[in-house]
Amino acid sequence: MKNPFHLAGRWLTAAALGAALAAAPALAEDYPARPVKIVVGFAPGGANDIIARLIATELTNAWGQSVVVENKPGANGAIAFQQVAKSAPDGYTLGLGTAGPTTMNQSLQKLPFDVLKDFTPIVNLVDAPHALAVNAKLPVNNLKEFVDYAKRAGTPLSYSSPGIGNSGHFAMEMLKQQTGMALTHIAYKGAAPALNDLIAGHVQAYFTSAAALLPHVNTGTIKVLAITSDKRLPLLPDVPTMAEAGFPDFEFPVYGGLLGPAGMPPQVVQKINADANRALKSPAFLEALRQNAMVAWGGTAEDFRSFLVTDLARWGKVVKAGNIRPE
After folding, report:
1. Considering just the CA atoms, what is the radius of gyration of the chain in Å?
2. Which CATH superfamily is domain 35-127+254-322 in?
3. CA–CA distance, 86 with 72 (Å, rounded to integer)
4. Hey, CA dihedral for 249, 159, 49, 106, is it positive or negative?
5. What is the pTM of this model?
6. What are the residue boundaries of the structural domains of the chain, listed by start?
């Protein structure tokens, strides 16, 4: 005779599983039933914070629930991502994933989390194009002239970045590897001093977000030679894309997307993805992106995961070829 307690245990397990499966669609239907938090690994006011607040506003309007942004700067975003990775995978704690603290840094050093194993990719929101700027006194007017000038210089030109492993550092390293230029990297503790020394002429070049360069474009202190987006930006209509400037193989997407902890219910992921994609078509959202020199992205959660796999491979090659070491 079979153990009745064993049979009862099996029945309860099956019942629990059935109840969980039945509840999954309801979970998505009811989500969100309370405020949702988006954790950002940088201080307020920067590009990452702007992206998070724009999507938070759109999702708040769509859901009728508050979507709040929590800034947790430190360790180049690692503190914020650790918090997200350790949160309950219920969709109420999300993180704004960006290239520097995730795919770039994971290619450079061991982090306390794995982008693909410890997170659920939800949706790639925007591309924040970068642009190459040089000091106004440098005798070049386009990207090819800059490359030729750097190759002819008796000593390597210097370029600034906010630190080792930063997107600006990796952008210039990629260009250096593709062209054979001799360049010296000067790592600063922050974007402001890196830009200030470009303007002052202490360094010759700086690859950074286009948004950061906008206030200085018409001051006569810098020249912007090329931009990493596929198309020219409305706010920088005279700046060619990298392809237009003669470098079609220079692919440098700087993403900003929503990630959640690993193990999120697929129905919740699909709901957030669908509502975020609708937000990306909002005229108000698109205008805000335009004003901040950003471009809407979108796509499925699987699209985002595939992109992350590709991005990790991209920066792994750059790190290896350049023998780049963390600080």
Report:
1. 23
2. Bordetella uptake gene, domain 1 (3.40.190.150)
3. 14
4. positive
5. 0.85
6. 35-127+254-322, 130-227
- Per CATH, 35-127+254-322 and 130-227 having the same topology is answered yes
In 3D, which of 102, 96, 101 has the Cα closest to residue 115?
102
> What is the Cα–Cα distance from 275 to 221, expressed in whole angstroms?
42
β-partners of residue 69 are 38
Minimal CA–CA distance to 82: which of 51, 123, 56, 114?
114
- 125-174 pLDDT, tens digit per residue, is 999 999 999 999 999 999 999 999 999 998 999 999 988 888 899 999 99
Q: Where are the beta strands (DSSP E) in the chain?
A: 36-40, 67-71, 93-98, 119-127, 130-135, 157-161, 183-187, 205-209, 222-227, 255-261, 295-296
CATH fold of 130-227, please? D-Maltodextrin-Binding Protein; domain 2 (3.40.190)
SS3 114: coil
- Dihedral of CA 104/107/108/109: which sign? positive
Q: What's the CA gap between 69 and 116, in Å, rounded?
A: 23
> Tell me: the pLDDT tens digits for 253-272?
889 999 999 999 999 999 99
- Do 245 and 226 form a contact (C-beta atoms < 8 A)? yes
Task: Identify the bridge partners of residue 296 per DSSP, sorted by sequence position.
Answer: 126
Phi-psi region of 180 (alpha: psi -120 to 50; beta: other; left: phi over 0): left
